[in-house]
Amino acid sequence: MRLLDVACGGGDTVRAISRMARREGIDLEVHGCDISAEAVSLAGAAAKAEGLETHFFQTDAINTPLPGGYHLITTSLFLHHLREADAESLLRSMAAATLEQLLVHDLIRSHVDLLLTWIGTRLLSRSPIVQIDGPLSVGGAFQLDEVAQLAAAAGLVNAELSRFWPERFLLSWSRNALSS
Question: Is the peptide bond before 67 cis (omega within 30 degrees of 0)?
Answer without folding.
Answer: no
